[in-house]
Amino acid sequence: xxxxxxxxxxxxxxxxxxxxxxxxxxxxxxxxxxxxxxxxxxxxxxxxxxxxxxxxxxxxxxxxxxxxxxxxxxxxxxxxxxxxxxxxxxxxxxxxxxxxxxxxxxxxxxxxxxxxxxxxxxxxxxxxxxxxxxxxxxxxxxxxxxxxxxxxxxxxxxxxxxxxxxxxxxxxxxxxxxxxxxxxxxxxxxxxxxxxxxxxxxxxxxxxxxxxxxxxxxxxxxxxxxxxxxxxxxxxxxxxxxxxxxxxxxxxxxxxxxxxxxxxxxxxxxxxxxxxxxxxxxxxxxxxxxxxxxxxxxxxxxxxxxxxxxxxxxxxxxxxxxxxxxxxxxxxxxxxxxxxxxxxxxxxxxxxxxxxxxxxxxxxxxxxxxxxxxxxxxxxxxxxxxxxxxxxxxxxxxxxxxxxxxxxxxxxxxxxxxxxxxxxxxxxxxxxxxxxxxxxxxxxxxxxxxxxxxxxxxxxxxxxxxxxxxxxxxxxxxxxxxxxxxxxxxx
Length: 491
Prior knowledge:
This protein is mainly alpha-helical. It has helices at about 5-20, 25-50, 85-105, 110-130, 130-140, 145-155, 160-185, 195, 205-220, 230-235, 240-265, 265-270, 275-290, 295-315, 320-350, 365, 370-380, 390-405, 405-430, 435-440, 445-465, 470-485; strands at about 60-70, 75-80. It has a two-stranded antiparallel sheet with strand order 1-2. β1 (about 60-70) and β2 form a beta hairpin. α15 (about 320-350) packs across α22. The longest helix has about 30 residues, at about 320-350. It starts with a helix and ends in a 5-residue tail after the last helix.
């Protein structure tokens, strides 16, 4: 079994084992099995980076086995510079989520931990799949564990949120399935994604395919105006669910643009780039303004995610290396920062059982260690230099200015909104005098919480101070994608 298969199936195996372990009286053993499973799953992904060959855009660690011979469907896996970091990021976030739910989850612990481990394996499968049907199976299968996570361990309106999440994302994917079947027929009976990149398609066909893929990926990102499901889901999801949703699941949609929309329909991507840039800037500016008036911390960070993912799609559709590489770096950085923001809210919620900003005030007086971590993550969310949040946004803005000064200007001014709503929330929650007795009784983070936040802080600072390992890996693949998208299929 290859490295990619191990990265996919080890967490799924541990997840199935956890489901079989039994009821809550075995919760202690369940937590340790989950931790071991998540750590082993993460360690398996590290050789993908250490053994990755730089300077080439070819797929590496490739596995290809016939799956459904009758329809030429293959179990075809591989990673390039665009996808390899997302495999590692997914496994890393899974470790953090298991640690985060150690004490907070006391009900159906085995099912909770098992769902996250299975979800981790399925999401890694999305980033590794080189066969269209395999991609679709993994892409849709991720809905099941996340639906259960929201619907079982969520808040008061969890059923509504879970249903809305499932319905939006499933309906968005149906047109993608039609597009995959069309490409199968057009290519003479192949589901190989790389062969689809070479198909000579006329402009009308490309436009139809582009919008079919857009229906799936725009909802998943989510882009404005199909973002309305995300705040509701974040508010109701348990802390771990929000962290994984923001850190990884939103990236599945953005990744789909790079694997399908841009290389398969490059002429349509160019033709409709104005629309995509307009929607991206709307997300960055308008949704940023919406975030400013939120009174629920989770809802504020949820809108913040929509705004930050707007930078990602903006970077992809300005068609230069800085923009696309910046978009990918922003995806990774947002994975660290958004997970840290939601987990920080979870730390407070576990103590106070409230997400309302008005319930807090002066938390720094009773939780100084935690407030220091929260400040770092808030600064990263603002895009402060030397943090992960700065690198990708800066690259996208530079690329946008090269593309069009006013597009770059609009994107740059949006950073002000990000700083405004993030610092406004931090000021009201953490700074000033203690405002009520509940805050006065708060206890600072324990060793487990400190370790969890420390891992995320190291990741945020490491990427901000030295992003070279991230950008070096993706350079060749980004250059190849730019070259491919620049060549019209109509010539």
